[in-house]
Amino acid sequence: MTIAVVTPIAAAATSPLLAWRDPVYIAAGLAGAIAMGLLLVQPLLAGGYLPRLSARGRLQVHRWVGGFLVVAVLVHVAGLWITSPPDVVDALLFVSPTQFSAWGVVAMWAMFAAALLAALRRRLRLRPRTWRFGHTVLVTVTVVGSVVHALLIEGTMETLSKAALCLLVLAATAKAVTDLRAWSTRNRVARDLDQ
């Protein structure tokens, strides 16, 4: 997992395309690459595929990584806003001529909604099944949108390592969603994560 996450980030950090870019643009791009790496970690935590963590420990780390993911996306968007506000406005209004922009915006809003749902679930008094289903749908939209967004961009992330990371993110998410069965009321693993 470490190699899958670090390799595309390292490739992006050393890309020759950054030679004449300003530091804010570089930080924004690296934040996006880091966010993709965190998208791989999240389903591995949720599904219990990482060793040496109890259900409670997994949940705690999952929450922290989710928080870092939100921050990484905010840094990504804020950096792009500073370097080119018109492009970000076009993306947010879905009028950008680049296809990857719309996918990124949809993924961003789905991720914010998933994080907000997680933060407010106790206050909203959601039933565990409703919570799991809603969170799973939003996370799935986030992952699919993010993967398409990343694959459509021809930028600083090296093509093969980026494609491998995207494939792993999709596979890990699909496995976790299938194993956790958010739609089921008889899933012990999902119940453990509801605590």
Summarize the structure.
With 195 residues, this protein is mainly α. Helix content is 78%, strand content 0%.
How would you summarize the topology of this molecule?
Elements: H1 2-13, H2 23-46, H3 55-83, H4 85-92, H5 99-124, H6 128-152, H7 159-180, H8 188-193
Helix pairs in contact: 1-2, 1-7, 2-3, 2-7, 3-4, 3-5, 5-6, 6-7
Task: Tell me about this structure.
With 195 residues, this protein is an all-alpha fold. The protein has one domain (2-190). 78% of the residues lie in helices and 0% in strands. The chain contains 8 helices and no strands. It has helices spanning 2-13, 23-46, 55-83, 85-92, 99-124, 128-152, 159-180, 188-193. Helix 2 (23-46) packs parallel to helix 7 (159-180), helix 3 (55-83) packs across helix 5 (99-124) and helix 6 packs antiparallel against helix 7. The radius of gyration is 17 Å and the shape is globular. The chain starts with a helix and ends with a helix. Mean pLDDT is 90; it is low at 188-192.
Tally of helical runs: 8
Distance between the termini: 27 Å
Structural class: mainly alpha
Question: For the report, how would you describe the main beta sheet?
Answer: none
Low-pLDDT ranges: 188-192
Q: Estimate the strand proportion.
A: under 5%
- SSE string: HHHHHHHH
Average pLDDT confidence is 90
How much is the radius of gyration in Å?
17 Å
Give the helix level as a range of percent: over 70%
Compute the number of structural domains.
1
Q: Give the overall silhouette.
A: globular
Number of strands: 0
